[in-house]
Amino acid sequence: MAEPLSPQTNPYGEAEPPESMDPEVYSRAVAEYLGDMIGQLESMARHQGFDLLVYLLSMARIEAETTARDKGSRRRTTS
């Protein structure tokens, strides 16, 4: 599992990795975090019967999970 996510935000709102964290590890942590948050939104939308939102959030969650998994496997193969 990746290190806990603790972004340092610049004035433009862009999250940057802490200096002590590998950017690839940070990127994976961000993707995992987004997947978790989107999953919660998806659950809320499903509970309310918002079918189109459920579909769109599901696609976004799957993309975030795939991105996190790909970044993790790329890290293992390049180490």
Secondary structure layout plus pairing:
Elements (H helix, E strand, L loop, with lengths): L7 E2 L5 E2 L6 H26 L2 H28 L1
Helix pairs in contact: 1-2
Beta content: 5-15%
Give the helix tally: 2
Integer tally of domains? 1
Structural class: mainly alpha
Determine the N-to-C terminus distance.
Answer: 16 Å
Taking all Cα atoms into account, the compactness measure Rg is: 15 Å
Number of strands: 2
Mean pLDDT: 82
Q: What general outline do the C-alpha atoms trace?
A: elongated
Strand order of the largest sheet: 1-2
Series of secondary-structure elements, N-terminal to C-terminal: EEHH
Low-confidence stretches: none
Main β-sheet description: 2 strands, antiparallel
How much helicity do the residues have?
55-70%
Structure description:
A two-stranded antiparallel sheet has the order 1-2. Helices cover 68% and strands 5% of the residues. The chain has helices at residues 23-48, 51-78; strands spanning 8-9, 15-16. The chain is elongated and about 45 Å long. The protein has one domain (22-78). The two termini are 16 Å apart. The longest helix is centred in the C-terminal third of the chain and has 28 residues, at 51-78. It has two helices and two strands; from the N terminus they run ββαα.
